[in-house]
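My main concern about presentation is that the manuscript never shows what a single data entry looks like. An entry of this sort, consisting of the sequence and the corresponding backbone structure tokens, reads as follows:
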Amino acid sequence: MKKIILVLHACALLAAGTVAAAQKPNVVFFFIDDLGWADLAYQGSEFYESPNIDRLAASGMVFTDAYACAPNCAPSRACLLSGKYTPRHGIYTVGDPRRGNHQFRRLEPPENKTVLDDEFVTWAEVLDSNGYTLASMGKWHLGSDPTTQGFDVNIAGKEWGSPSGGGYHSPYKYPNLIQKEKGEYLTDRLTDEAVKFIDDNKDQPFFLYLTHYAVHTPIQAKDEITVKYQSKTPGQHQKNTKYAAMIESVDDSVGRVLAKVGDLGLTDNTVVVFYSDNGGHMGATSNHPLRGAKGMLYEGGIREPFIVRWPGVTNAGSRCSEPIIGVDLYPTFMEITNSGMNEDYDLDGLSIVPLLKDSAASLQREALFWHFPCYLQGTGDPHGGPFRTTPAGAIRMGDWKLIEWFETGRLELYNLKDDLGESNDLSKSDPAKLAKLHAAMTQWRTDVAATVPTTRNPRYDPNAKLRGSRRKK
């Protein structure tokens, strides 16, 4: 089916005639792993430094209410590449959906997929058929090789979700990236490869998907940068010196890549996107003023930094508060690159190009949705239990957000405009709003055939907490 769609797409392009080069801007897409909404200076961080990313924000459009489609890596990336919400592709989490102590788990979650099926046509495949040369550099996490999903070049991408072997410091061995000598830093090497790719493809339309492993654990930084932060006064909430140094290395990468684009005279014909796949990891950073962290459906787990610079379209220093989400990138890339899609391949997102042209515009969409029917181990925010999260779903409609917890049926309602930190649950005081959002979310789950776990876990022990909550699986 995928091949048929691509052939039909290619035929449509031929029938329409060759698209002029000026209508095919280059795209540089920085996709950072586990970078929190509050982890950058332009977002208000008082400890981490990000001058290159800050300059990018000042030269483009900052989205204040941008979201990932999931609170952890693999499902967020599957949604991004496929243009479909999690129930459509079945990648709900990373690995085992039962992560945590069985005796505390009330329900049996649905089975989880770990590879994006070939039936899904990625935006990379569509752009490839439209004459783009595409490179994926860094984390892939959706299968063995991104070149099976439309990319021409794969550097360091495979199934794994975090740096393998020695972590960020060589010696290491990745697909098409091997360094046997000690001393090289992975973020720097990926940047070297990205700069070379731009240089090699400067005379044709290219798409660089620079998907850094940083700032995912293990928290490993360059010593010479870490020392700088060890002598700096810690922030009130953010104090991790090695994490700060990892962010600076990512920032250096952004600076070097954009400098290469500028040196080659490509700035005016290059769209730059900066984004993160989920919220900051609680053990590494603080997402304050947001509640929660990676692995949770509170804002700290899903709200992301997001910047777009499109010369001649976005206004420098502009800000947009319209809520957007990961599945919106697919139709956006289609419109930016003048790439047609077969109408039989349904997308769950909307192009944000109208917002890029006018930050005050509205997408006129009913709501954004999340479905995470899985367990993640570790103590955390959700009600003081032994999990970071239990199975849950969420909806954002306008300024309002509802979270439903599938184990208990508990509903939480927040007005994000007045309560960004989700500290004031309005589910009892505004039952009409609660009912409206819950009905919309329930209908959406029906529309996308979302599986809500209901089967009881036979190994659940309601008295287990009396014996402690730290037992192993």
Notes: The first strand starts at residue 26 and ends at 32. The chain has twelve helices and 19 strands.
